[in-house]
Amino acid sequence: MKKKLKNNVYWLGKVDWDLRTFHGEELSTHRGSTYNSYLIKEEKNVLIDTVWLPYAKEFVENLKSEINLEDIDYIVINHGEVDHSGALVELMQHIPDTPIYCSQNAVKSLKGQYHQDWNFNVVKTGDKLDLGNGKELIFVEMTMLHWPDSMAAFLTEDNILFSNDAFGQHFASDMLFNDLVDQCALFEEALKYYANILNPFSMLLRRKLDEIMALDLPIEMIATSHGVLWRDNPMQIVEKYVEWANDYQENQITIIYDSMWEGTKKLADNIVQGIRKVDNDVIVKVFFLPHSDENDLISEVFKSKTVIVGSPTMNNSMLHSVAGFIHLAKEAKFKKKKAAAFGCYGWSGEAVKLVSEKMKDAGFEIINDGFRNQWNPDKEAQKEAIEFGKEIAKA
Ligand code: FEO
């Protein structure tokens, strides 16, 4: 069912209430998601993006009920990833010659995925498409936000920025607009989306945000490709992105650990006590890795100034859960965050050193040599763990 954004601009996407993982199993989506497609009906009719492949038939049927497909003059594909281009094959069977406007790299990704020689029209930043009635689409390349082919389009007069993945959230809602949903949930999802998907490209994003600001577009609405649209104070999410793209951190220390027989867990509890003895204000959060959602933990690391990672030694190494999580943290390319390691061991005790090395390799500044304890922590060891916590808090 279509929904009106303003004037002759409509949403025609899919609310995927059931989605619980995205990018295969890589990213958790506790609140589902949406795939937002837009139809602009001016003298020229334009379709912007489509939906994910499993919903292709449903999407094209809906589209048919809103417009004679032959009357679509142009298709704009802002990004070739399958969650936005997935209905193209189904759609283009009906209107095979309709021009597709996209970036040069999107031609590569669309041809690579669908093996079709559609009527591609390559556009770059500043190129315009006349829609009649005094309205134009102006294209802005969004290279590496988050794919080499990513692009945005700005509709003049209505002043809507179709931003594709940027400024989105995996947040299923049929309320469409940001002012109609729970603000805590909205910003939690927007931050998770940024931390997990966009943080690796923060440096590029800083430049791109400057470039968008310099264009001085009178943005009245940001129509993302996932989640709700920003119509109430749309620049608030741009301002958040400026903040997040600049090595974001809050006054938070996060402890993430795995444990076999609760020795490393005991150390974690003592480290918290140590931190508290030094700093009453810092937010301290503790997560037992096997019971935590790794993508939520990436959000927590994103908010942290320091991350303390614990693992017992197993077969001369750390537990695989810890190795896997540090790999994920490395992919997020965090900058200017501190880290330290801790853990119990019975015999050889390599884990703490290896966790420190792996965290350093993941881009964290290592505070000290870490804290390790042989066997189950006794009173003395627990006191030492408290001292270790104090040292972290002072670092
Ligand atoms: Fe929402 Fe990069 O696709």
CATH topology of the largest domain: Metallo-beta-lactamase, Chain A
- Strand percent estimate: 15-25%
The CATH architecture of the largest domain is: 4-Layer Sandwich
* Number of DSSP strand runs: 22
> For the record, what CATH class of the largest domain applies?
Alpha Beta
- What average pLDDT do the residues reach? 97
N→C terminal distance: 55 Å
Number of domains: 2
| CATH H-level superfamily title of the largest domain | Ribonuclease Z/Hydroxyacylglutathione hydrolase-like
The helix-and-strand class reads: alpha/beta
Bound small molecules, deduplicated:
MU-OXO-diiron
Number of helices: 12
Largest sheet: 7 strands, mixed
Strand arrangement within the widest β-sheet reads: 1-2-7-8-9-10-11
Can you tell me the overall shape? elongated
- Rg, please? 24 Å
Structure description:
The chain is α/β, with parallel strands linked by helices. It has two domains: about 5-245, Ribonuclease Z/Hydroxyacylglutathione hydrolase-like (Metallo-beta-lactamase, Chain A, 4-Layer Sandwich); about 250-395, 3-Layer(aba) Sandwich (Rossmann fold). It is built from twelve helices and 22 strands. It has helices at about 55-65, 80-85, 90, 105-115, 185-200, 200-215, 235-245, 265-280, 295-305, 320-330, 350-360, 380-395; strands at about 5, 10, 15, 20, 25-30, 35, 40, 45-50, 75, 100, 120, 130, 135-140, 150-155, 160-165, 220-225, 250-255, 285-290, 305-310, 340-345, 365, 370-375. It has a seven-stranded mixed sheet. Strands 17, 18, 19, 20, 21 and 22 form a six-stranded parallel sheet that branches. Strands 12-13-14-15-16 form a five-stranded mixed sheet, with no helix packed on it. The protein is elongated. The mean pLDDT is about 95. The structure holds MU-OXO-diiron (FEO). MU-OXO-diiron binds near residues 79, 83, 147 and 165.
